[in-house]
C-alpha cells in the first residue's frame, strides 16, 4: 500500500497541490524548510506531529510525491540533533515499517536552530543512515533554513 492510500484523512493533510514553493515552519520559531517545486509536481504535505501520530516520538511534517512514491520526513528542531534523528527513525518505523507502507524513497531532513554536531557520527546517526539507505533515501541537516528542489 502506498503512503497516500494509507494516510488519506484530510485532517492530517496541510495541502495537496502543485504549488511552486512549500514552506514549513513551527509557530513563533525561525527555523524553516523550503521546498522548491519548479517542475510543478503533485505534492501532499502531512502534519505528522499531532496529526497522523499523536503519541511517541515523531517528526513534524511529511512531504509525499505520489508520482514518484517518494517521502520526505521533516523535523524542525532546537539544537538536539540526536533527538531529531531518533524522532525521524521512530516515524519511519511506525508509519512505514510497522504499517507495511511501500515507498520508492524516504528522505530525512533536519533543520536545527544551531548546529552543534560533532564530526564523528553518533550511533543514532549511523542507525538512521543505514535505514535510509535501505529505503533509497538520504539525510540532510541545516541550521535555521533548508532550501532544496523537490
In words, what does this structure look like?
By secondary structure, this protein is α/β, with parallel strands linked by helices. The chain contains three helices and nine strands; from the N terminus they run αββββββαβαββ. It has helices at 3-6, 81-97, 123-134; strands spanning 13-17, 21-25, 32-36, 43-47, 61-65, 70-77, 105-112, 139-143, 145-149. The strands form two sheets. It has a six-stranded mixed beta sheet with strand order 1-4-5-6-7-8. It has a three-stranded mixed beta sheet with strand order 2-3-9, with no helix packed on it.
SSE layout and pairing:
Layout: H1 3-6, E1 13-17, E2 21-25, E3 32-36, E4 43-47, E5 61-65, E6 70-77, H2 81-97, E7 105-112, H3 123-134, E8 139-143, E9 145-149
Parallel strand pairs: 3-9, 6-7, 7-8
Antiparallel strand pairs: 1-4, 2-3, 4-5, 5-6
Helix pairs in contact: 2-3
Defining traits:
150 residues; alpha/beta; six-stranded mixed β-sheet
Would you summarize the structure shown here?
The chain is α/β, with parallel strands linked by helices. It has helices at residues 3-6, 81-97, 123-134; strands at 13-17, 21-25, 32-36, 43-47, 61-65, 70-77, 105-112, 139-143, 145-149.
